[in-house]
Amino acid sequence: MPYLTRSDSVWTLYLGTEGIELDPQNPENRFHPDWIAAVHEQLDRIEADDEKTAVVLTATGKFFSNGLDVDYVAANADKLPQYLDQVHALYRRLLTFSRPIVAAVNGHAFGAGAMLVLCAEHRIMRTERGFWSLPEILLGMPFTDPMSALLRTRLPDATATEAMTTGRRYGAAQAQELGIVEQAVDVDSLLTIATAEAANRAAVAGPGLATIKSNLRGPLLQVMSQPTPPL
Questions:
Q1: How far apart are CA 71 and CA 69, in angstroms?
Q2: Cα–Cα distances in Å, from 4 out to 27, 74, 120?
């Protein structure tokens, strides 16, 4: 399950399980409801700290996040609208979080995991391994309205159009060129650079930042607050 470490003014939120590179229960850091709840618990811990801090969002192993938990969805089709609402709620929380967030994309970020990357203010991706991709079109899966709004808002139009309609996989250099991430760096520098970037932003943490983010993303947040309609 997701866990935290801290160094000075920077919290590092790992999407995997402490001490295990690939947790056999969720090796791809998929969005199981328990996993989503665990991410919220760690965010609660960060917000309970009154100091000015920032967050690096990353993972360990081969995956940043491979998106929706398809096994859970297959076994709980009747709960799909509520499940998607939980996914959208996590995006909303990160988009309006009172601490700066820097994503350090250590491996594959697909589907809902790729969208999770876009919830950070600053995004850094490793160059040696891993792709950012939206494979929904290849799987016959439509994007929800909130997901479409997130992608339209956080990506250049040409990039969003290509990514959403082709399922193309982007390596770090291509992702930087097309505005998916701001930086592409080698794996040995990934966390060092991400932590330094987060530390530089920590001074702006607090309620004012949350308000600015909420106002900045107002139309997006309105769409993302709409309940998923029944199937």
A1: 6
A2: 18, 30, 17
- Structure token pair of residue 2: 């997701």
195, 56 in Cβ contact below 8 A?
A: yes
Instruction: Give the domains, in start order, of the chain with CATH numbers.
Output: 3-224 (3.90.226.10)
Between the CA of residue 154 and those of 32, 159, 160, 192, what are the distances in Å?
24, 10, 9, 25
Taking the C-alpha atoms of residue 172 and residue 105, their distance in angstroms, rounded to an integer, is 9
The burial of 70, by beta-carbon neighbours within 10 Å (0-12 exposed, 13-18 middle, 19 or more buried), is given as middle
Three-class DSSP category at 2: coil
pLDDT in tens, 88-133: 999 999 999 999 999 999 999 999 999 999 999 999 999 998 999 9
DSSP three-state, residue 3: strand
Q: Is-contact 17 59, C-beta < 8 A? A: no
